[in-house]
Queue: 2 jobs
Job 1
Amino acid sequence: MENNIIPILMPKWGLTMEEGQVNEWLVKEGEKISVGDEIIEVETDKITGAVEAVDAGILRRCIAESESIYPVKSLLGVLADSSVLDSDIETFIESYEIPFSGEEDAEGSGAKYLYTEVDGLRVRYTDRGSDDSVVLLVHGFGGDLDNWLFNFDALADKHRVLALDLPGHGESGKTILEPSISGLAKFVGKFLEAVDVPSANIVGHSMGGAIAMQMVTEHPESVDSLGLICSSGLGPEINNDYLQGFVDAQTRRELKPVLQQLFADESLVNRKLVDDVLKYKRLDGVDEVLRTLSAMLLSASQTKLSDKVVASRKPTLVIWGEQDRIIPVSHARNISTSAGSPVEVEIFDSAGHLVQMERANDVNRRLLEFLG
Amino acid sequence: MARTISFKEAINEALDQEMTRDKSVIVMGEDSIGGTGSPGEDDAWGGPMGVTKGLYGKHGNQIMDTPLSESAYIGAAIGAAACGMRPVAELMFVDFMGVCFDQIYNQAAKFKYMFGGKAETPVVIRTMVGAGINAAAQHSQMLTAIFTHIPGLKVVCPSNPYDAKGLLIQSIRDNDPVIFCEHKSLYGVEGEVSEESYVIPFAEANVMRDGGDVTIVAYGMMVGKAMNAAETLAKEGVECDVIDLRTLSPIDMETVLESVENTGRLVVVDEANPRCSIATDVSAHVAQQAFKSLKAQIEMVTAPHTPVPFASTLEDIYIPSNDSVAKAVRKTL
């Protein structure tokens, strides 16, 4: 009968997550659950998220206790339909063992950071899943590939997913040879060559979106489609105070309110998140990179890239958070999606600029639907 | 790339990277090379604890062994700093400060003030502090408060590898004399440290744990004890804020006051002797500036007012323990 028993496991969000804290169950024991329902809220040292049901059934057992910490892949609960005997569920729970995490990660394709060199600069990236269809995730200003920690696993089920740290970001080298959207687009193109990927579906967030659009100009042959998430380059407005605040913040006290602007729910900004960004900002070379890039972004925001995208006829999905305080949602609303347009637009409520974190499950679903 | 390295390796890496970045950064001390000093001695000791091991091979012109005379080489380092170098001098044990103290407190600390701000003394004095390895009364003291008392000196005492690297790089780049206190019991402690160079600014306490019931303030090796106590207490339903001061001069009292204003309860943990210490200093500040927030008496957990005993059983009792911190917290409830 075990086939009908569906375990609910502690997820692994991002490459470094080893354990998570269960905040609360969002459904009660005995309740009926449909695919996509949010079942349980989990907090990691980076952020809080909800685990979704991948199958339908009745929540037969809540094993995890609120406020308790469990390793990745721990059994948190059990889904099954009403025909499954209680005794079978008990047997399943008793015999469940956390799979040895080394197994699937041992190969190069597993969940770890990889490094390559582009233009003499070290580039950190991750490469997961395997498929002819490749998705490349490009983060935004001041971010890194972990901005996609809720996304790469979900996308890697169906596609090969690459995500990189742009120059000056994350753990890539801390210089930018050509600090312009065009320079960065060329760099991303060279990265794709370095990892031997002829073309990819490019999904960019914020500044990464502008880079993705620019790639249509720089390397049209390497772009299969575009995913633009709260992208810059679609309109003139960009929150100058945020950019300046991010660059200038030297302490936790200064940085926290800046980072809170990224989310609709400000409580998502915990101490660890602020600490991680602060640690990044304190690396040698980062301050200069951020100052150069923010100045570039403010002048580049005048340039509208969307016309080129429409003209290129590349399939394009634009995703936005309704409460985006960095780049206004009006940029998404202004895009023409009339019949025959290659552009689709999806706006999510209760989400800010980091919509791919705040509404991760919905963004993943929409991206997968778009990518086909 | 962040990887796990020891406290000792973090300090070595900071020195290595700063010597590479800036040729005016020089390392000097008794046994800093630690071999005979002859060419080819790349694998020399690198100090009694091996902290500077390997640096001679990479930076042979920027590292020197000095005669066994603290008054001479600490003075030389301070003089070199006044003349444009950035020396990192190693005072093997802080307990030996007596013989070179004039150079430190009456010369280095005063230059900027006595020469109308025209002289700068960017010297770092790295020194081993604290008890716990059975090194007896003359090699185990926690003399942080003596340096903290002197205006013109900056005093740093990291608790973990990440902080050790960032604070040491900041110390080297700082234009004032810095006393960098390394707890000898922490050298083997491991933690995640970025391969790249980075700084941690002075006067930024690190909130290690958010609790809300009681504030525990500590520095150096005592941070680990405070964290252990906080974990024990959490099981009893008492949630502690744990604050690592990181630098003692300048000191981040704002973070301490902010926490105490919320919790109303303060326990200060200091491995030093109890009189005129960091513990009494922090307590006095809080009593004066956040008196109305306090719901209980301030508790101090310190060593007793005795020299550090040699007998290991006595030394164990001498050093504040996880239990003594937890007990002090319970007294405030």
Job 2
Amino acid sequence: MSSVVSSTGATAGGAQPRKKYGSLEQQHRTTMRYSYAALSFFVVVFLIPPFYMIMTSLKSSAEISAQQGNPWIVRSPTLENYAHLLSDASFQRYFLNSTWVTALVVIISMTIAILAAFSLSRMGFKGSQVISTGVFLTYLVPPSLLFIPLFQIVGTLGLINNTWVLVLLFPTLAVPFCTWIMIGYFSSIPKELDEAALIDGANYPQILIKIFIPVAFPGIIAATIFAFTVAWGAFLYPLAYLYSADQATLTVGIVRELIRGDVFAWGMIMAACAIAAAPPIIIYTFLMDYYVAGLTSGATKG
Amino acid sequence: MADGSTMVVGSGDAMSPAPRKVGSLKQLSRRRSTAALLLCLPLILLIVGLKIYPTFYAIFLSMLDRKMNNFVGLDNFAFLLTRPSFHLVIFQSCLFAITAVILKAFLGFILAHLMHNIRGKNQRVWRGLLLVPWVIPLSLSTLTWWWLFDPSYSALNWTLEYFGLDAIPFLGTRWNARISVIMVNVWFGAPFFMIMYLAALKSVSEQLYEAAAIDGANAWQKLIYITLPMMRNIILITVLYSLIVTFADFDIVRILTNGGPQDSTHLFATYAFTVGIQSGNIPRGASVSLFMFPILATLAFFVLRDVLKRNKEVAS
């Protein structure tokens, strides 16, 4: 950058505006080139595990155990691991369990979060400030702090080894942050909008459905993705509370059931990981911008 | 929601000025806050029932004996503090959280700057690529790391040997295992720091840099006197938040080492799982988790203070 400064100083007296412009441009281009080079390096490093996951999933068990040559590439690619998994009854079970648990958790969490955020950001009541703060605080309570007392509580409710326990517990992980995001988006809607609607005779349900939800739709997408991510990827609760294979979700099913004894069928395990990682990756590919915006809305304001 | 419509009819009336209406206005606002409270009720029930109650229940549990018949006061905590394996847990949890967060913050900062240099459509693609580690469910990517670290099939070791270096037993010795779990956490968490810092970088006004350039500031000075002060808040909040999450991490250690070798990589969460769920000593497991509480509460206090302060600044 010092050369910019010196060239600015030099051109102050003389008349060489074109040359100065050129050097700035050139410097910019150099910065770009270095940035791309460095980023390429980081991308390669960061993508090693997913790359290797895909490569291994395309190998047959024979090829893996033969250990011949470069392990990073696949010699005779085969889809047999995928075919085997997709026709495997217990893997189908995990996928199904993950799917319906995630769907229910997303619906329940978003309903709770939207109603609460609407109430906290617009209607207000005694103590609503305390609740907003409390919601944020509970977001900071990690699942690993409470899983042991919850084990007892869940046991009393008779939900041990029952997939429904996840429908009960996952909202506690998703709702606080979803509510927090939604409060942010709802608060940014100008008060005049709902006042105008009130004067026109709309009631609160109408205001919520016809104004708030459409206007804050990006926020709803962001919060939904968060709830989805939490429910799809959670590992501790299903590991602690579900012990039989037919109740397991994908994460715990793969980690616990596919690794049997010393017979490591790594091609199949990696194929299972790839299948399980696909839904989040697809969703993020299309909706990443909303999610990042929702996540960083706190970072950009103020 | 049923009284929503009546509420609004009332508020329509309240708009017209009439001294007589004061009473009904008060009534209206009371009804409105009842409705507001009702809308919050599911949230309150959820938090009270499954967050606040379990916290107190954990404290109660931690004071029972193994069979959960007798009250033993603080014996569980005292016992844990005498165990060398629990000293290792405390040491490793702190080492893991602090080292990983520093590395993530540093790497995230570099990545955000590199990303910031690229403008337009390309940035979106590159950002997407770097976010992949953060998008894959952690337990599954950790499984992939385990496979990469596998003692006899390790592809990483194959590469090292290919370049004439010695193979590394990644999970075989104490310090290797400690470093490996930290590396996996950094790999997973650095992209999060990147997007937070990138958003913060974007919000710093270009004019500040132009003004500094005119005053003759070099790149280093711009970083120290503009970028860092402008990003101070977001760096602080992200680091504190990440400290909480990393400190309470479970998935990586559970899958990669399950605490081994010789209990050297156990974190509070994985140790609590081993003691509480696997060995069935619920009270002692609860005590292990509760050791996290003071540390997490302190960190949460600072996060909250910062967030509330920022909200106030934004509001004013």
